[in-house]
Amino acid sequence: DADVTQTPRNRITKTGKRIMLECSQTKGHDRMYWYRQDPGLGLRLIYYSFDVKDINKGEISDGYSVSRQAQAKFSLSLESAIPNQTALYFCATSVASGGTYNEQFFGPGTRLTVL
Amino acid sequence: GDSVTQMEGPVTLSEEAFLTINCTYTATGYPSLFWYVQYPGEGLQLLLKATKADDKGSNKGFEATYRKETTSFHLEKGSVQVSDSAVYFCALSPKTGNQFYFGTGTSLTVIP
After folding, report:
1. pLDDT at B9
2. What would the pLDDT profile of B36-86 be if each residue is shown by its tens digit?
3. Are A29 and A94 in contact, with CB atoms under 8 Å apart?
4. Phi, psi of B28 (to 5 degrees)
5. What one-character-per-residue DSSP string does A68-94 give?
6. A interface toward B at CB cutoff 8 Å?
């Protein structure tokens, strides 16, 4: 079984709809992240969480919100989807080691299309 | 601020050709450096990493050396295969701070 799972894998929605993307992990990591990937722009950080009570905005948080329901679950919501939020979304986890970052482990991605 | 700049693609090579994908970084202090690979339809996977100057990361025939004097972490492979076709991302993790910085990715296609 995959260590980091994302649901749904693909989603098509309409402008103005609320949508939630979910991420679960079995790695036991404290840190979780949401990124979006757009062609030519690489990965951009939306939100990150270092534990259940810690939520931080990333580079492009406008239009998004998150919820850390448990150590293993981190959800991303689009309250009112717009077409320029069409992208590939990735969840990732990591564990800090000695005050520095270790590698990040990625889920398979959710392809979101907003019409 | 911290950032990563990598060679733009796409890159197309014939099987068994030599591969270099350039990556340079800007950071204060001594970050950790990574190469991630994204195969079609999949998430990113760690390919290799180096955590201090002069370290060489290697995996699956790929290598990259952490060069502090040139602030570079170029990815190399002596003989590419069709199965290496993917998008490659250079990334940086600062020793302090809370973010992980990715380059824009380089698409590699290897043709038989």
Report:
1. 83
2. 999 988 889 999 999 889 999 999 999 999 999 999 999 999 999 999 999
3. yes
4. -90, 140
5. EEETTEEEEEESS--GGG-EEEEEEEE
6. 4, 33, 40-43, 45, 48, 50, 56, 58, 90, 92, 94, 99-109
Q: What angle do CA A22, A27, A32 make, to 5 degrees?
A: 50
Exposed, middle or buried by CB within 10 Å (0-12, 13-18, 19+), for A5?
Answer: middle
Q: Which residues of chain A neighbour B51 with C-beta distances below 8 Å?
A: 100
- Residue A95: is it exposed, middle or buried by C-beta count within 10 angstroms (0-12/13-18/19+)? middle
**CA separation for the pair A115, A16 (Å, rounded):** 10
Partners of residue B26 on adjacent β-strands: B3
Eight-class DSSP state of B70: T
User: How would you write the pLDDT of chain A (115 residues) with one tens digit per residue?
Assistant: 569 999 999 999 999 999 999 999 999 998 999 999 998 788 999 999 988 999 999 989 999 999 999 999 999 999 999 999 999 999 999 886 655 566 889 999 999 999 9
- Residue among A40, A56, A106 minimizing CB distance to B98: A56
Closest CA to A49 of A36, A65, A68: A68
How far, in whole angstroms, is CA B86 from its chain's centroid? 12
Q: Is B94 an 8 Å CB contact of chain A?
A: yes
